[in-house]
Amino acid sequence: QVQLVESGGGLVQPGGSLRLSCAASGFTFSNYAMAWYRQAPGKQRELVASITGGGWANYADSMKGRFTISRDNAKNTAYLQMNKLKPEDTAVYYCTRYRLGYSPDYWGQGTQVTVSS
Q1: Radius of gyration of the chain (CA)
Q2: How much helix, strand and coil, in percent to the nearest 5, is found in the chain?
Q3: I need a surface site. Which of 10, 36, 78, 101 has the fewest CB within 10 A?
Q4: ∠ CA 98-101-103 to the nearest 5 degrees?
C-alpha cells in the first residue's frame, strides 16, 4: 500500500527555520516525482515545491530563496527545508507523489506549521 507520512511541523517564531520530512513506502520511490503543497484555513491549496526522481527541483515564486526541496532515494524520503519563515507560511503542509505530466495521486496526512511570536 502506498503511504506518505509527513513529520517535522510545529510552532516557530518569525524568521526561524523548520525541516519537514516525508517518509514514503509501498512503491518504487525513485520512479516518482515528489511535491509539497500547503493549505491555510479559508485559502486554496497551493504548490510549494516539486522535485523529479532525478533531483530537478522547482519552486513557487513566493518560496524561492527561502525553501529548499530535496530527496534521498536510498532512504525513500523527501524533505522541505524552510528558512526565514513568515506568519503567512502558517498552513498544513502535505507531501504528494506524481508522475511527470500527471497530477498527484497520493497525499500524506499533513503536518501543521505555525509561525507566530
Answers
A1: 13
A2: 10, 50, 40
A3: 101
A4: 45
